[in-house]
Design a protein that fits this description.
three-stranded antiparallel sheet; 14 helices; seven-stranded mixed sheet; alpha/beta; single chain; Aspartate Aminotransferase, domain 2; globular; binds glutamic acid; 2 domains; 14 strands; binds 4'-deoxy-4'-aminopyridoxal-5'-phosphate; Aspartate Aminotransferase, domain 1
């Protein structure tokens, strides 16, 4: 007799696996099977971790730096992070205001666990990065989606923001430059957030993971530059995944008020204990060493961005906001929804992304994963040759829809 299946906890039933990681896994499996897949799905730099950072990781292993570290991360790394913020941004933090976590995603998880109770609402400007809603939900909180309009370059409209505020609102997640749109928030939007946050005692979560990848010279307005006093209600999330091409090392960090960081350390002490000792030494080399790598990477991304935006906007009935940062474009393909090919109806972003994967061998992420069905996300952190080939295939695949 077959044993009955062990039941799962309620909390996991409402959570779907990360769609970005799922598409990437599917693309890689198809590729391993011999298909000529062009992968525009997962967002990770197509660069190797810089040599001096890898060497620091190796030296940590060879030097036997392979034991537990302090729960919040090694002091040298937290000091280096404080120095970076002081020198680069003029923000003052002490090491006990920093937690190093197993990637930026884990930092978000830790903060949600210590901040939100059932019934608490957290505002999420939409389109959003795929992991924000589940991370809030796993903490028992309720994500509240605040729409960002393509016509406003996905900036946050203060009037619309106010419509979504209730007495249960506890905070907001900002992500500028944004994944998936590449848009940056205007000073005016940040001022509105700051005002509401102070009036209503909100926490502001500022996910700055793409802050080294900003094109042009408009600068990057930041919530802490609106008023430094906002430090008392802001958690600044960052990490080395994107800036130093270190996605696999799993090092992120949060800067914020001492009592929140201390609470996050409690969670960390009871879950992961500490991020990998070896990866922390590598991240130290990244944070304390020369900062030219992210600049070089950005220089490489810029012509790719220009090219992919030109190609996308050259396709009939496709619109595409020019990303000001990060390495994503989020074109609107809704004019193609309702069309069909060989009896297959393209009724939304999932159907379009499936069609592109199966017929054009293009891996992309459907906009619905980011809360916006009219769009598809392309990561251009891939070679120019792949982008050129991909755009040609895309044009052909769309032209076949009638
Ligand atoms: N925030 C955003 C907006 C991201 O795109 C990512 C990338 N996965 C992260 C946070 C977390 O990055 P990681 O966990 O790889 O450090
Ligand atoms: N942030 C990246 C992306 O959006 C990596 C995948 C993930 O962590 O979801 O593709």
């Amino acid at each position: 007799m077959e044993a009955p299946m062990i039941p799962l906890a309620e909390r996991i039933k409402q959570i779907k696996p990360s769609p970005t990681l799922a598409v990437d896994a599917k693309a890689k499996a198809l590729k391993a099977g011999g298909a000529d897949i062009l992968n525009f799905s997962v967002g990770e730099p197509d660069f190797d971790t810089p040599l001096h950072v890898r060497e620091a990781g190796k030296a940590a292993i060879d030097g036997g730096f392979t034991r537990y570290t302090p729960v919040p991360g090694i002091l040298e790394l937290r000091q280096a992070i404080c120095r970076r913020y002081a020198e680069d941004r003029g923000w003052q933090y002490e090491p006990d205001q920093i937690q190093v976590s197993c990637g930026g995603k884990h930092g978000l998880y830790n903060m949600a666990q210590v901040l939100f109770n059932p019934g608490d609402e957290v505002l999420i400007p939409t389109p959003y990065w795929v992991s924000y809603p589940p991370i809030i939900q796993l903490a028992g909180g309720t994500p509240v989606f605040v729409p960002l309009a393509e016509e406003r370059n996905f900036d946050l409209d203060p009037a619309i923001l106010r419509d979504y505020v209730t007495d249960r609102t506890r905070g907001i997640i900002l992500n500028s430059p944004s994944n998936p749109t590449g848009s940056v928030l205007s000073r005016q939007a940040l001022e509105a957030v700051a005002q509401l946050a102070v009036e209503r005692n909100w926490i502001i979560i500022s996910d700055d993971i793409y802050d080294t990848i900003v094109y042009g010279d408009g600068g990057l307005p930041h919530i802490l530059d609106i008023d430094p006093a906002l430090q008392a209600r802001t958690l600044v999330l960052n990490g080395v995944s994107k800036s130093f091409a270190m996605t696999g090392w799993r090092i992120g960090y949060t800067a914020g008020p001492k009592h929140i960081i201390a609470a996050m350390n409690k969670i960390q002490s009871q879950s992961t204990s500490n991020p990998s000792s070896v990866a922390q030494k590598a991240a130290l080399a990244a944070a304390a060493g020369p900062q030219d790598f992210p600049v070089e990477m950005k220089k490489a991304f810029l012509p790719r961005r220009d090219y992919i935006v030109r190609e996308l906007t050259g396709i009939p009935r496709v619109t595409c906001v020019v990303p000001k940062g990060a390495f994503y474009v989020f074109p609107n393909f809704s004019a193609y929804y309702g069309k069909s090919v060989k009896g297959r109806v393209i009724d939304g972003s999932v159907a379009l992304a499936d069609y592109l994967l199966e017929e054009a061998l293009l891996a992309t992420v459907p906009g619905i994963a980011f809360g916006c069905d009219p769009f598809i996300r392309f990561s251009f952190a891939t070679s120019m040759a792949i982008i050129e080939k991909g755009m040609a295939r895309l044009r052909e695949a769309l032209a076949a829809l009638a």
